[in-house]
Each structure stands twice: as C-alpha cells, then as structure tokens.
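Entry for FE2/S2 (inorganic) cluster complex. Fields follow.
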Amino acid sequence: MYSEKVMDHFTNPRNVGELADANAIGEVGNAKCGDIMKMYFKIDKNVIVDVKFKTFGCGAAVATSSMATELIKGKTIEEALKLTNKAVVEALDGLPPVKVHCSVLAEQAVKATIADYYTRQGIDPEPIVGKIEEHCHGDECGCSTH
Ligand code: FES
C-alpha cells in the first residue's frame, strides 16, 4: 500500500523537532481527521537555512512533512512557495488516494510558516502566499489538484 520511500520517511522522519531560533512558525490542522502540523523555519537573506517540524498526525502526514522539509531546506522563499503537494507525493513515489489530503497539509504548513515570516515583518502575506486552507475538507475536496 505504501511505497518504500513513504515507509522510510515515516519510520525515520527527517527534520523532526523545534527550532529555538526560528523566525517563522506555522501551524495548520485538518478539521476532519484532527491532525496538526507545525513547522519552524530559520530564514536568512530570503533563504530557508534550517527547518524542523512536528506532526501530530497520521503516518502519511509524518512522511509528507518529512519530505516537504527536505525539499525546501536551503531553498529561497520563492522556491518553497512553489512546492506543491503533488511534488511531495511524487518525491515519495506516490500515496494511496485516500491519503493525498495529508500531503496538502504539508504544503499548507510550508505556506503558513512563510506567511508568519511576513506577518512578523508587518507585511500582509496574503498577496504573496495566497490564502491558506488551514482546514482541508478531507478526501472529497480533490486535494491532489490544489
Ligand atoms: Fe489526517 Fe493524514 S489522516 S493528515
């Protein structure tokens, strides 16, 4: 059911924990399953130099947040904003359809954290980051196309 990569990132997730010197923190939750994802970024000169996450959620949520943090580490904010849940799913060699919404949570967590970075500087994040779907509606919302 799960690819080897998903199992690997679930059993041995990368970048787990908190960042004491984070200058951006974002949290999103899935209203349906109740899972929560929190991300911590250290951003320096527009580059995400360090990233950690904590996920209180299902295995797919752990695996997707692990992969998402790997994909954005060392990248610019602009590059990180382009990360889609689809790219995360592809990097994990796929997810079962009922679990695709979990990857949306990872994409939204990245965006929420970048939004926090701008908010802390008194900049309205919405024109840059877009609207954050903090509460994904679950399987029926067609998340894979977000
Ligand atoms: Fe909730 Fe996966 S079932 S994020």
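NOTE: The pocket of FE2/S2 (inorganic) cluster is lined by residues 30, 33, 35, 57-58, 60-61, 102, 105 (CB under 6 Å).
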